[in-house]
Amino acid sequence: MQREFKLLMLITLLSLGACKTQEEIQREQMVDNLSIQLVENQKLTADSKVRLQGIEERLGMLTGQFEDTTHDTKTQLLTQLSTLSEKVSLLEEKDKLSSNTLDVTQKRLTSIEQKLKKQDTYLKKLLATLSGKSKKKSKAKKMSKYDSAMYDYKKGRYKNAKRKLEALEGNKRIKGTKRARVLHNLGMVSYIQKNNNGATAYFGKLFTEYPKSSYNANGLLFLSKTLSRMKQNEQAKQTLEELIKRFPKSKKVKEAKKLLSKL
Predict the structure, then answer these.
(1) Tens of pLDDT along 143-196?
(2) Under CATH, which architecture does the 146-262 domain have?
(3) Sorted alphabetically, which PROSITE patterns does this protein's record hold (predicted)?
(4) N or C terminus: fewer CB in 10 A for the chain?
């Protein structure tokens, strides 16, 4: 019995000793685990510090950039304010110029109005004159064939004048001074149109039919010019001498003498 009791006690003690060892092992494992966790926490803390430093550096950079940006923005704002101030000054100057321009424009308008009034007065007079001329033209339409022919000749419308003068030259009712004038004008139109034969014919006819007519002074002068143009210088000279002899007081004598000296 005693041996069994001792054996039982020994087994109990051994089992109790074994139980304490397991607890110590568990405790040691817990300590190891805590040590590992502590190391890991230290690593995390170190990483966090590194990250925090990185964040602080970035914040510092951003702060510097913000300050730079703020400085640039202030500079831009100051530049814009300066530009705006200049523009305002320019606008004020333009406003002054506009006021001066308005005054000048007003004066010009007043001057233009005065000129327009004068032009209006002038136009009224001109219209009145034109209406008077139109009345004269209407009267001209009622002119006789003789007056119409002389009017065309006077205005240099020689083609129309010649046609009318030729009709008058064949009209037996046209006599005396009127016929002499018709012959003279026909001779002049022929000379102007370089119709030498027509000119010599009409001037010769004028001198033959109306030898004492004053139209002969000019007629003989241009007859001489026509003959000279036809290279008939001797006959041209005789014609000029006849002019000087028959019409010594005529204004054409002076020109006749000059032509005579050249032949």
Answers:
(1) 899 999 999 999 999 999 999 999 998 998 999 999 999 999 999 999 999 999
(2) Alpha Horseshoe (1.25)
(3) PROKAR_LIPOPROTEIN
(4) N
pTM of the model: 0.47
**C-beta separation of 240 from 220 below 8 A:** yes
Q: How many beta carbons lie within 10 A of that of residue 174, not counting itself?
A: 20
Burial bucket for residue 182 (CB in 10 Å: 0-12, 13-18, 19+):
buried
8 Å CB contact between 244 and 256: yes
With CA atoms as reference, report the closest residue to 148 among 158, 138, 161, 162: 161
Collapse the DSSP code of 216 into the 3-class scheme (helix H, G, I; strand E, B; otherwise coil) and give the result. Answer: helix
Residues in contact with 228: Cβ distance below 8 Å, sequence separation at least 6, in sequence order: 236, 259, 263
Query: SS3 breakdown of the chain: % helix, strand, coil, rounded to 5?
Result: 90, 0, 10
Task: Encode pLDDT of 116-130 as tens digits.
Answer: 677 778 777 777 877
Q: Where are the domains of the chain?
A: 104-142, 146-262
Query: Which residues, at least 6 apart from 46, have a Cβ–Cβ distance to it below 8 Å?
Result: none
- ∠ CA 176-163-154 to the nearest 5 degrees? 70
